[in-house]
C-alpha cells in the first residue's frame, strides 16, 4: 500500500489553525542552502534540483533499481528553514534580499547516502541543473516544537507567528532558534496566495 504523508503523518503536516505543541522525530532530508529573495531564479532552480532528486529516488524501481526496504510513497512536501543575514537583522524594515535559507524535502527511511548519490548521478545524466552538486543528504532532529497551519499569503505570516509567540509565553516555553521552519502543503507555484497552506514551526524548550 502506498504511504501517503497526508493520511499517515497528519501530526507533522496538517496541524490546526491554532498553535499546538508537537514532538518531531529525526528524519532524513535532501537539502540545499542559499540566501536572497525567494522570488529569484536561483531559488526556483534550487527547488527544481531538490524535486528532481526526490523523484529520481521515488522512480528508481521503474529504472530497474529497487533499494533495500523500498516502498511506494507520495513525495514529501518542500520545507524550508528561514532566517536573516547579519545586515538584515540590523534593519528596521524586513527585506527579502537579506533572507538566508535551507530548503529541503524529507526522504523515506530506506534512503541511504548510497541511494542519494545514485539518484544524483542519474539526474545529472537526464537533466542539467548547476545546483545538483550543492544538494546534501542528512538527518535533522527538531524535538519539541510549537507549530500551526497558516492560511494565506506568505506576507501575512507575521500574524501567525505572533499567535505562536503568545502561545509560547502562555505555556512558559522558550523559542530555541531565531530561525523558523515552513512546510509548503500547497504548491505556491500553482495556486493563488490566499489559498496557500503553510505549516509554521518553532523549536522550543521549557523555560
UniProtKB/TrEMBL annotation:
Span of domain GyrI-like small molecule binding: 18-198
Gene3D superfamilies in alphabetical order: Regulatory factor, effector binding domain (3.20.80.10)
Domain of life according to the entry: Bacteria
Coiled coil: none
Pfam family, one: GyrI-like
Name the UniProt record assigns to this protein: GyrI-like small molecule binding domain-containing protein
Amino acid at each position: 500500500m502506498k504511504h501517503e504523508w497526508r493520511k499517515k503523518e497528519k501530526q507533522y503536516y496538517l496541524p490546526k489553525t491554532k498553535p499546538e505543541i508537537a514532538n518531531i522525530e529525526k528524519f532524513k532530508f535532501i537539502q540545499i542552502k542559499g540566501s536572497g529573495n525567494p522570488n529569484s531564479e536561483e531559488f526556483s532552480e534550487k527547488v527544481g534540483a531538490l524535486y528532481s532528486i526526490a523523484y529520481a529516488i521515488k522512480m528508481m524501481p521503474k529504472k530497474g533499481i529497487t533499494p533495500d526496504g523500498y516502498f511506494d510513497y507520495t513525495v514529501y512536501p518542500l520545507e524550508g528553514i528561514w532566517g536573516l543575514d547579519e545586515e538584515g537583522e540590523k534593519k528596521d524594515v524586513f527585506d527579502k534580499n537579506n533572507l538566508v535559507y535551507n530548503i529541503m524535502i524529507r526522504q523515506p527511511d530506506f534512503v541511504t547516502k548510497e541511494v542519494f548519490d545514485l539518484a544524483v548521478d542519474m539526474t545529472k545524466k537526464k537533466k542539467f541543473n548547476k545546483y545538483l552538486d550543492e544538494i546534501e543528504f542528512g538527518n535533522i532532529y527538531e524535538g519539541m516544537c510549537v507549530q500551526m497551519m497558516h492560511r494565506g499569503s506568505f506576507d501575512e505570516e507575521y500574524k501567525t507567528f505572533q499567535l505562536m509567540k503568545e502561545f509560547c509565553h502562555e505555556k512558559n516555553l522558550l523559542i530555541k532558534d531565531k530561525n523558523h521552519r515552513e512546510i509548503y502543503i500547497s504548491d505556491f507555484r500553482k495556486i493563488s496566495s490566499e489559498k496557500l497552506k503553510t505549516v509554521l514551526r518553532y523549536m522550543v524548550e521549557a523555560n
